[in-house]
């Protein structure tokens, strides 16, 4: 029987602590989760590694929007990856696409070679959900040596993409790890496992906390409708983790 792995998408040091308290198995470390997750700081990684004992996969995404990067953005991604790997990251989550939504094999192969030089995990993130042909893309990622794909089955949520996730698991699951993500919670994680045969799951487990200085007078820094910001809830992590353990 395969062991289930529950990964939490975290955006701060406290998020990572909460995730460990709640029973997560692994962390994907980001900044700017409201933009879908961007590259975290080195200081964040160092503090997280001091305070928790879970595996930490660092997001490597230099900006919002898509995944077709220019030369300067690409150069920064490789520098960030090397810095993270030298400072304790257990893996790097990244994605390179061409303008036509196909896999950029040259950049991916180079990134995988860098990550594997440090004997760490190469994770292709949900840029995969933008590809034009998931079967061709999955085989290309396998050929490039990628260790794991984070995907929602090319749909907004993993439950909506469950049919494709099952097909990908059946076709490629013995050659590459599949990590299902997007919209996963305590109410659907068991259903998703049964429908797809996948045993790795990725969730934000987020709740909201108000900051009273977000809107003061005529000035507002709000990005949500209640002057609050998201954080990982240890209680939600615990509920999802417990649900996953149920048979």
Please tell me about this protein's structure.
- The protein has one domain (5-245): Alpha-Beta Barrel (TIM Barrel).
- The protein has 8 helices and 12 strands.
- The longest helix is centred in the first third of the chain and has 16 residues, at 71-86.
- The strands form 3 sheets. It has an 8-stranded parallel beta barrel with strand order 1-2-3-4-5-6-7-8, surrounded by 6 helices. A two-stranded antiparallel ribbon has the order 9-12. Strands 10-11 form a two-stranded antiparallel sheet.
- Helices cover 37% and strands 20% of the residues.
- With 247 residues, it is an alpha/beta fold.
- Strand 5 (121-124), helix 5 and strand 6 (148-151) form a beta-alpha-beta unit.
């Amino acid at each position: 029987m395969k062991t289930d792995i529950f990964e939490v998408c975290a955006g701060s040091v406290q998020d990572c602590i909460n995730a460990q308290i709640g029973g997560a198995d692994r962390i994907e470390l980001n900044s700017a989760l409201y933009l879908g997750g961007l590259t975290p700081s080195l200081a964040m990684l160092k503090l997280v590694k001091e305070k928790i004992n879970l595996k930490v996969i660092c997001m490597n995404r230099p900006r919002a929007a898509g995944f077709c990067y220019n030369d300067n953005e690409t150069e920064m991604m490789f520098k960030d990856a090397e810095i993270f790997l030298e400072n304790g990251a257990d893996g790097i989550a990244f994605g390179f696409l061409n303008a036509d939504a196909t896999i950029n094999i040259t950049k991916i192969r180079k990134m995988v070679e860098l990550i594997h030089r440090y004997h760490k995990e190469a994770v292709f993130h949900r840029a995969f959900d933008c590809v034009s042909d998931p079967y061709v893309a999955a085989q290309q990622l396998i050929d490039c040596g990628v260790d794991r794909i984070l995907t929602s089955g090319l749909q907004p949520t993993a439950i909506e993409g469950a049919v494709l996730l099952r097909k990908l698991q059946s076709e490629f699951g013995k050659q590459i790890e599949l990590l299902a993500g997007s919209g996963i919670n305590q109410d659907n994680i068991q259903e998703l496992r049964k429908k797809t045969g996948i045993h790795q799951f990725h969730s934000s487990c987020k709740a909201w906390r108000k900051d009273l200085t977000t809107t003061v007078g005529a000035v507002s820094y709000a990005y949500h409708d209640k002057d609050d910001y998201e954080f990982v809830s240890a209680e939600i992590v615990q509920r999802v983790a417990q649900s996953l353990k149920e048979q």
